[in-house]
């Protein structure tokens, strides 16, 4: 058996970021930039009002006060999309609205609440300095400025920024195509009639959801029966994909056929077992153009190994750092932990804010790798090294968030 770190290193060394493709801005949410986004204009393109009010010359109203307002001649209006065409001279003012271009000659805006006006004049009751409530041209960004860096996963805010920069098309990494193959005579699809010895398939659908949430394209190949012919036939559906992920069949039992079937077809296994719990029965190999990641069949083992191995692969393929996958946090144990044995352990746990604001982490009392109901409730994993010493309640430990979703607003 090898360590989790060594297994990750061997697996990730087989992958590189996928090539770039160009997509329309409305289709870019969640995609990862292969090239920076550069502004194609200056924003705002002109000096603009930051407030509804009156565009004035600050020198003209230097003596203005509520009990002694300064009268100015009203000469026009500037609104968004409709700039005032003239120039503001001494003793003049222009009605202006937020976002509208500042007229030539004016250098400040007085809020409408500090003025009173009629059809021909305005009484300004407060002095302002030059530049007050004025957004200068380029206040946000300028033409040629990098708005978004290469390697960024695009959020809704990023889409809005790129649109503001007048960028209609983006260069992004191609989405990873991941084939998912479940195995086992005991597996039936949700809603199908169940035989007396069958269980409902959870692994394939959960993995497809994780792939989708991480920005990939999942291809569910179905469930292979426990025969070499069935496994081989369905595995052919992975042609053209970037990775084939199997669940079950990776151990050494009489009915664990995936390892043997693929070995017969030239798959050279670079990882066969990993010193971890849950998830020891994990394998990785390559044959031709489609690498294979074989995950264990127990549903929680599948989920944990997918977080530790499949999720970083998906990140790397999209041009992201696999090492930033699920930023580790520190949290305070609410209960003590026993000493660990020779395998690394990943305890399922919940997070909550403690009374002092420090994160508190509580591992489930039951850690069996078949308890999917508790895994669904988990917020994080508590990684424990091989031969770890006992940890008392109150100790600060590392936790790995189970944030399957890659998208952020």
Explain what you see.
With 409 residues, the chain is of the alpha/beta class. Helix content is 17%, strand content 29%. The strands form seven sheets. It has a six-stranded mixed beta sheet with strand order 7-4-6-5-9-8, with no helix packed on it. Strands 16-13-17-21-20-18 form a six-stranded mixed beta sheet, sandwiched between helices. A hairpin with a 3-residue loop joins β8 and β9. α1 crosses α6. The longest helix has 19 residues, at 299-317. The radius of gyration is 31 Å and the shape is elongated.
Write the layout of secondary structure elements.
Layout: H1 4-12, E1 20-24, E2 37-38, E3 48-49, E4 53-56, E5 70-78, E6 92-96, E7 108-111, E8 115-117, E9 121-124, E10 134-135, E11 146-148, H2 156-164, E12 169-173, E13 177-183, E14 187-188, E15 199-200, H3 203-213, E16 217-224, H4 228-235, E17 243-247, H5 258-264, E18 268-271, E19 276-277, E20 283-287, E21 290-295, H6 299-317, E22 329-333, E23 344-353, E24 359-363, H7 372-377, E25 380-384, E26 396-401
Tell me the number of helical segments per DSSP (H or I, 4 or more residues long). Answer: 7
What distance lies between the first and last C-alpha atoms, to the nearest angstrom? 41 Å
Spatial arrangement of strands, main beta sheet: 7-4-6-5-9-8
* Low-confidence runs: none
Briefly note the structural class of the backbone: alpha/beta
CATH architecture of the largest domain: 3-Layer(aba) Sandwich
State the name of the first-level CATH class of the largest domain: Alpha Beta
Portion in strands: 25-35%
The percent of residues in helical segments reads 10-25%
What's the gyration radius in Å? 31 Å
